[in-house]
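Incident log entry.

Two folding requests arrived from the same account within the same minute. Monitoring flagged them as a possible duplicate submission, but the sequences differ. Recording both here for audit purposes.

Request one:
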Amino acid sequence: TLSKDKAFLAINPTGKVPALETPHGAVWQSNAITRYLARCGPAANLLGNTFQEQAEVDQWLDFSLNELEVSGTMLYYPAIGAVAIDGNTGAACKEAEGFFLAALKVLDEHLLLRTFVVGQSLTIADIALAAALFYPFKFVLDKGLRKQCGNVVRWFQFITAQDKFRAVAGDVTLCKKRVAMPKASAAGGAAKGGKK
């Protein structure tokens, strides 16, 4: 969502959400806000307990944004009307699905013997990844796809069952039937059944 409101643009010149107003100025971009909030409560060690863990947390935050969020949104945004559908949308969604499932496989292998993504306790890596997967689990990852990433499913259900996560996001609803992706169509034509 882009805002053209002058007051909002003074906080975030990109016009995009999220943006956070602090007593010392604005912070924008999801991962920057996440790190800022984690630093406000250092007793929780949400950033990692060592320099190595902190670097790994940063690594998984970048992975979440670049490998899961971008491709993941293309698997449900068209179906919920968050993006316009044109002749290229179906092909873009199919390509995004390949990227998303490959990233999910990386995370699944990483979680094989782990309860948390980094270290032995909850970090913002767990929170960011679970948040990035919240809607894919609701709209895309049906029973068949969940079978391919059992470690991610186990971890996701554990993280999202935490009282503090549930207080913000509510209860998780796992996908029963995947939302339909737009079909690839002739270049430049409107996708069949799509919105203009």
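Request two (distinct sequence, not a duplicate):
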Amino acid sequence: LVPIALVVRKFRKNIWIITERYDQARDNGYCFFKYVREEQKYQEIYYIIDKKASDYQKIKDFVNIIQYDSWKHYLYYCIANVHISAHVGGCAPSNSPICRRLKPILKYKTVFIPHGVSYGIAEFCLQKYAKIDLFICSGKLEYENVLKNYGYSQKEVVYTGFPRLDSWHNIEVNSKQILVMPTWRLYLAQNPDTVFEETKYYHYYQELLQDKMLHEFLDKNDLKLIFYLHHNMQKYVNSFSSDSPNIEIVYKEETYDIQ
């Protein structure tokens, strides 16, 4: 791969590639791609997604779509000089450990537009591990936190807001709906030996879903509560249940557009 990468680098153009998860087009990556294709047409940019995914239908008319994990994906991974993703290393094909080792050779720039606001210290985003070239922040406190604790310089962190915020105008809000969306836990999401039903994470949220006072409150105020687990915790969603007709547990992520 190293000799191939060196040859491919000679054909480099000012090309950007962008993605979210391999099967999604619904967040900052999608919103930024849509903006560039509509407003900055001079910039050559390509979106990477599995064309079998339902979200592909939202983005197919923009052209410049690359099938995830295809030969074209590998090619553009090498010739693009800017990689933009909602996840660290997200533009890589499925064999990402090998591809990521090529960065010192390919010398592309990485732009990180996270799908969530960085709070506390997320170790996988630290400069010594992720080596992000441009870290996008949505809030001032987030920006200050990343600068202070993540090891990046002021040239590598910017406070601009997220692309998805540009489309959040004139939205009709359902005042009778409550969203409960617990975040994920690394030790639960990636530990195959976890007995999920024995964890505090499970017990606290299951107790909430079965809480009689909550049920009465929802019923009295004609409210609907939607319980939507984070993508990395979706494999545990069938462990949860509720007796209340006013509580909906989302068993399939496609049920709602996350935006």
